[in-house]
Structures are given as C-alpha cells and as structure tokens.
Specification:
The complex is a heterodimer of chains A (112) and B (113). Chain A is mostly beta strands and 112 residues long. Chain A has no helices and eleven strands. In chain A, the strands form two sheets. In chain A, strands 2, 4, 5, 6, 9, 10 and 11 form a seven-stranded mixed beta sheet that branches. Chain A has a four-stranded antiparallel beta sheet with strand order 1-3-8-7, with no helix packed on it. In chain A, a hairpin with a 6-residue loop joins strand 7 and strand 8. Chain B has 113 residues and is mainly β. In chain B, the strands form three sheets. In chain B, strands 2, 5, 6, 10, 11 and 12 form a six-stranded mixed beta sheet that branches. Chain B has a four-stranded antiparallel beta sheet with strand order 3-9-8-7, with no helix packed on it. Chain B is globular and about 45 Å long. Classes of the chains: A mainly beta (112), B mainly beta (113). At the A-B interface, strand 4, strand 5, strand 9 and strand 10 of A face strand 6 and strand 11 of B.
C-alpha cells in the first residue's frame, strides 16, 4: 500500500537555525497537510496546500513557517528561525478528493 | 469554536476485556467524526468515521456511533487484543472530506495478555 514518507525521523537543531522537514506524499494525491504535536498536547493542524498554494492555515502558521512543493513529489515545511517551543512531532499528510487523510510517521524536531 | 475532548489515559485492560473510550465534541453545524489510531513508531491511521447523526462507523471490531443529542462519538470494542495497544485519537472535520481535522488529546490503550 502506498505510504506518506517523512525524513528525517528525528532532527535536532539549535535555536535560531533554519530547518526543513521533508515529505513525499502519496503520488496521486492532490491535497497536502502539515500537523504538529507538542509533547503531551493535541495534534494541531498547521496548514493545507492544494494546487500549488496554501488553501488554509492556522494561527500557529506564522511568518516563520513556509511550505513548498518544489517538484512533483516532495512537500516541505520550512521553519526560518527555530524557537524552543517549535520542538514537536511534525506530521505530513495527503489525500485525494475522496480518500481519508494518510499520515506519515512524523519527524521529531528537537530545538536546543 | 470547534473542539474535541477525550477521556484521559492511559487505559490498561486485560485481553478480551470490553473497551470504551469516551469522546465528546463541540462544533457548529454538522461535522464529520473520526477515530484515528497510532501504533508505536507509526503515523496516524484512520480507524473509522461517521459523517452524519446516528451513523455507526466500524472497522476491525471497533465501533462508534455519531450521537448528535449528546455530542458524542465513543469508541467501543467488545474484546480487545494485545495488538490493539496504541494511542487512539478522536477527531472532527467541519465537512465530510476530513482534510483539516481537529483532534482530541489522544488516549493511550495498553492491553495485557
């Protein structure tokens, strides 16, 4: 069964550094999402992306965050200048029009 | 605003015990409701869903009924197995597409042999 693939599984970065989290959605999917889960808290929606543009974003998704689909297969989340509170598990997800969301296994981001 | 509340975990049961994980929601309009499961080291997987009141979602022996009058979507299974040990998330979507989800906090289930 096709899967959403996220790399790396664990990323450690220093405060103030830029980080890029990578995702390969399922190949025929058209809708892409990022969610995050801070340890001990709920899984939170960050952003949705369709037709090469952001379709919706949450209050969390401020100017420090950006998403990109640089080619036909990758979907990236960039955090420009990481803060300690950005430490979380980040989940990528994708879907086509009628399917449920398919999630990746997540990238654990640790900001020191 | 829209929100989902789940019972606190962790829940520890013996194999073949009956499982209930409570989930209640607050939403405007007519949301769709979902249960997702996360096995250790894996991503979230859709377990079941219901898109309108009185619908029952079911999968792998799990069931949940969309109760509009009590704004609930409790997850049940008659006889749990060790392999059901996972974290279970209740979620809602404001439409039946299930893209942008609002999650509960998750309930960890541990089933002992």
């Amino acid at each position: 069964e096709p899967e959403v693939t996220q790399t790396p599984s664990h990323q450690v970065t220093q405060m103030g550094q830029e980080v890029i989290l990578r995702c390969v959605p399922i190949s025929n999917h058209l809708y892409f999402y990022w969610y995050r889960q801070i340890l001990g808290q709920k899984v939170e929606f960050l952003v949705s992306f369709y037709n090469n543009e952001i379709s919706e974003k949450s209050e969390i998704f401020d100017d420090q965050f950006s998403v990109e689909r640089p080619d036909g297969s990758n979907f990236t989340l960039k955090i420009r200048s990481t803060k300690l509170e950005d430490s979380a598990m980040y989940f990528c997800a994708s879907k086509d029009g009628g399917s449920p969301l398919h999630f990746g296994n997540g990238t654990r981001l640790t900001v020191t | 605003g829209n929100s989902v509340t789940q019972m606190e975990g962790p829940v520890t049961l013996s194999e073949e015990a009956f499982l209930t994980i409570n989930c209640t929601y607050t939403a405007t309009g007519y949301p769709s409701l979902f249960w997702y499961v996360q096995y250790p080291g894996e991503g979230l997987q859709l377990l079941l869903k219901a898109t309108k009141a009185d619908d029952k979602g079911s999968n792998k022996g799990f069931e949940a009924t969309y109760r509009k009058e009590t704004t609930s979507f409790h997850l049940e299974k008659g006889s749990v197995q060790v392999s059901d040990s996972a974290v279970y998330f209740c979620a809602l979507s404001r439409n039946n597409q299930g893209g942008k989800l609002i999650f509960g906090q998750g309930t960890e289930l541990s089933v002992k042999p």
